[in-house]
Amino acid sequence: MSGVAGLPPQAQPRPGDPVGPTEHQVGPSAEGSRLDAYLPRAFPDISRAEFQRWIAAERVLLNGVIPKPRTRLHPGDLVVVDFPPPASEELIGQDLPLDVLYEDADLLIINKPPGMAVHPGAGCHEGTVVNALLGRGSTLSDTRGLQRPGIVHRLDKGTSGVLLIAKNNRAHEAVARQFRERSLNKTYLAIVGGVVQAAGSVDQPLGRSRFHRKKMAVCPGGKSARTGYTVLEVVGRYSWLELKPHTGRTHQIRVHMAHVGHPVLCDGLYSRRSVLRQRDLPGRWETPEAAVCERLALHAHKLELSHPRSGERVCFEAPWPAPLKQTLEVLRAAYGTASPSTEE
Questions:
Q1: Active site residues per annotation
Q2: How far apart are CA 60 and CA 70, in angstroms?
Q3: What digits encode the pLDDT tens for the residues 260-312?
Q4: CATH topology assigned to domain 16-82
Q5: Do 248 and 153 touch, CB atoms closer than 8 A?
Q6: Per-residue pLDDT tens over the stretch 59-99
Q7: What percentage of the chain has pLDDT greater than the value 90?
Q8: 39 burial class (0-12, 13-18, 19+ CB within 10 angstroms)?
Q9: Over 80: is that where the pLDDT of 258 sits?
Q10: How far is the CA of 139 from the CAs of 47, 103, 334, in angstroms?
Q11: Lowest-pLDDT range, 41-45, 170-174, 185-189, 316-320?
Q12: Which of the residues 79, 104, 125, 335 has an alpha carbon 20 to 30 A from that of 55?
């Protein structure tokens, strides 16, 4: 392993470079230019190769849509480049607790808690999974550079559950290949709003929202995305689902379920409510302002893949969190439904 001491030189923004989403309007002289050829002219301190990497990493939007490097430009086009933070700040290790589900020489599997970011980003340099990994002295892959040692995939900050960490580059590439080829299986559990009548799937392309830089949206020019779901239980005006994302797009489950009218409970980004209180449920409550649920009710329950060294099929599982179990119990009490005989 070559270490995690830093990013390649071309990936390190210099002092004075833009940071975060930066808008740029294409001028008349750029008519017909390729996007990846034009951007280095608009931002001379960044190379064409680096912009190509950023386009592949979905850090560039063209008129609100994720483009290809070869996309031709027209005067008036709006380009938004999400410039990464400077890499000059070294990551710090922190003594933070991690719920380790499994560990060997190649893999570390944790049950990520809600509210913990996977890796540092703009405005978030501490308290992440990466900080905790460095704090415990874990050997990590450096395939993705300084800011994301060991990180093969990610979970949203509010999502809990199974997160896989690669401890060396060989394991990292083997697992990343399975993500690319979609040969591994991911299973999530969620409480969503509304009555879901039967099993089904949502097959809608996703891209960055044109109106909110932190949101994704269903859009014709986006990347293909498909999410299957089955109903575990209907509780009054809510449903408990098992979901299987067949692709791995940002916010995929959250956007797809909101798109079909069943947003994940307490998803403040894609629905109107970030906290469910007793007063929002039927019945008389002694403490109506008490929170029934105040976290995103989405949990990465299982991850099944081929072990990078042995090739053996393995499955890692994080149990349905106690606070979400309690949420289901309160919903059952409020709507007068009984707990099912078998439960995840």
A1: 156
A2: 13
A3: 999 999 999 999 999 999 999 999 999 999 999 999 999 999 999 999 999 99
A4: 3.10.290
A5: yes
A6: 899 998 999 999 999 999 999 998 876 554 578 899 999 99
A7: 68
A8: buried
A9: yes
A10: 31, 12, 48
A11: 41-45
A12: 125
CA–CA distance, 275 with 160 (Å, rounded to integer): 17
- Tell me the β-bridge partners of 82: 21
Structure tokens at 127: 């308290």
Q: How remote is the C-alpha of 291 from its chain's centroid?
A: 25
Rounded to an integer, what distance in angstroms lies between the CA atom of residue 298 and that of residue 191? 7
Taking CA atoms, 298 is separated from 99, 211, 287, in Å, by 18, 25, 26
Q: Which residues pair with 112 in a beta bridge?
A: 161
- Residue 72 is encoded by which pair of tokens? 């031709």
Say which residue the tokens 């050829």 belong to. 37
Which of 92-101, 138-147, 217-226 has the weakest average pLDDT? 138-147
State how far the Cα of 188 lies from the Cα of 176, in Å rounded to an integer.
19
- In CATH, which superfamily holds the domain spanning 185-335? Pseudouridine synthase (3.30.2350.10)
Name the token pair of 339: 């707990």
Domains 16-82 and 100-181 share a fold: no
CATH topology classification for 100-181? Pseudouridine synthase (3.30.2350)
Rounded CA gap, 280 and 95, in Å? Answer: 39
Write out the two tokens for 286.
């002694």
pLDDT interval class at 8 (50, 70, 90): very low
Placement of tokens 């008349």 in the chain: 28
Instruction: Give the number of other CB atoms < 10 A from CB of residue 17.
Output: 15
